[in-house]
Amino acid sequence: MLGFITYGGGMTLPRDVSARLEVSIDDPTELEMQITVAKLPGLQLAEELKIELDGSPVDVEELVADHGSRIHRMQLGRGLLTIDYTAEVLTAANPIPVESTDRSRYLRPSRYAECDKFFGFVAGQFDLSLPEGELLNQVATFVEQRLNYIPGASDPIDGAADTLLAGAGVCRDYAHLVVALLRALNIPARLVAVYAPGCSPMDFHAVAEAIIDGEWVVVDSTRLAPRQSLVRIATGRDAADTAFLDNHRGTITLNKYEVTATVRGELPYDDATARVMIG
């Protein structure tokens, strides 16, 4: 069990987030999860993580991955696993700076954002001579208008090309299509798993980030939650890097889970054309 932890940072509208999961472990396995708020400079956070197997505490190894993502790894026998996480996010984290390797890493095709399939498509769909900021807005609008948000319309293994053809999906599908189109336009982009106050239906949420004028700015074509309220959980090339549960070896069943995310006060207004960074 992890107790309360506090990190220093500046002022922001406080946010409260939580996640509760119940998982049946049918065979001994190694389980990894990413549900805790990313550990980043400037963040002031009070949190508690409680993990039990059949009512007994579980030994947990915490790994800090890229961009503050925290992976909690467990070796588990058979039984009923319960996971409870709560956090008070008291300040914003400092914006993540652009690193020298980011352009190389986040222009490459990845499992669910196969940008190499979109080079011809973007050449016919967008004006490649426009500044990158304008292309970003055009991509965000294109995906918002092209897709319908329909839970159950996609499979967990669908990539951006599948989503474009289906014309429907959920937040991760929207984000994957945004990321793939931006990379095909030579704009580095990646996926971020977040807590999203104001999101309806409430769930773990996925958005895209892109490098514009030397900064990572956030794109959410679902328009389900104000970007200013987002709380970073995990960051990666696509959902393969940011899944909230990864199972290795044994058989598990996710019985149920519940996510909450709120702000203390009024939700901020989000002008879709404004540049916003996740803090």
From TrEMBL:
Superkingdom of the organism of origin: Bacteria
Domain Transglutaminase-like: 163-223
Matching InterPro entries: Papain-like_cys_pep_sf, Transglutaminase-like
Pfam families found in the cross-reference section: Transglut_core
Signal peptide (residue range): none
Protein name per the record: Transglutaminase-like domain-containing protein
